[in-house]
Specification:
By secondary structure, the protein is of the alpha/beta class. Helices cover 29% and strands 27% of the residues. The strands form three sheets. A six-stranded mixed sheet has the order 8-9-5-10-11-12, with helices on both faces. A four-stranded antiparallel sheet has the order 1-2-3-4, with no helix packed on it. It is globular and about 50 Å long.
């Protein structure tokens, strides 16, 4: 987007020449990318930590704790027997989409007993991604309900464990009873490109929501 020159003190002008730069007179300055917060949610062991780690351009911050014998008796490990740790607070990473936009990713803990942290983690988020293990659809209902009740735009992503999913997209949409405007897709949490494409789906959805809100506000003026 190219903006018309605007006056500044001293008679110089400011204009946007290329994405991420601003020209002031004869000098150009690099603008920091716009920060956008996105939440990665879902049940226990669906791949939230893996998703953040696969795409983050920095060493992701994780709050992993070993699964104790007590926790193993509460959390279902039948489909993830190799899992030895679990997120007890959040995961954090970031990825620069282009010179104008940077995503900050916050992964929620999956267990219900850590649900009290969700409000703080989700505050200020532009959108969310609900990751689903199709072998355990029941585990994602809470995350879907959370975003729906707070009117936060989100997408549903089926993690292809072992390269496959148990149900098709239409079957999952019906089972979760999500609206037609909620994207439902398949991805591989281990593959950077697959994660990127899935996050872009959420980003486009969230930005469309912002544009709609701005358009409504403009008509009310």
């Amino acid at each position: 987007m190219v903006c018309a020159p605007s006056p500044t003190p001293g008679g110089s002008s400011v204009k946007a020449d290329t994405p991420g730069t601003v020209a002031v007179g004869d000098d150009e300055f690099q603008q920091p990318p716009l920060p956008v917060k996105m939440v990665i949610a879902g049940g226990f062991g669906v791949g939230k930590t893996t998703t953040v780690a696969s795409i983050s351009e920095i060493e992701p911050l994780t709050t992993e704790a070993s699964i104790t014998t007590v926790a193993a008796g509460v959390d279902d490990l039948s489909h993830t027997p190799e899992k030895t740790t679990t997120t007890v607070a959040m995961d954090f990473g970031c990825i620069t989409i282009d010179p104008t936009l940077k995503l900050y990713l916050f992964g929620t803990p999956g267990q219900e007993r850590f649900g009290f942290m969700w409000d703080d983690i989700v505050e200020g988020a532009l959108g969310g991604l609900v990751i689903v293990d199709t072998r355990r659809l029941d585990d994602c209902y809470a995350a879907v309900d959370y975003f729906e009740h707070r009117d936060i735009p989100f997408a549903v992503a089926l993690n292809a464990f072992d390269g496959k999913v148990e149900y098709g997209l239409d079957e999952v949409r019906w089972a979760l009873d999500v609206s037609d405007h909620v994207p439902v897709t398949v991805f591989d949490a281990r593959e950077r490109g697959s994660v990127r494409d899935t996050l872009l789906v959420v980003l486009e959805l969230a930005l469309a929501r912002v544009e709609e809100a701005e358009a409504r506000a403009a008509t009310e003026l």
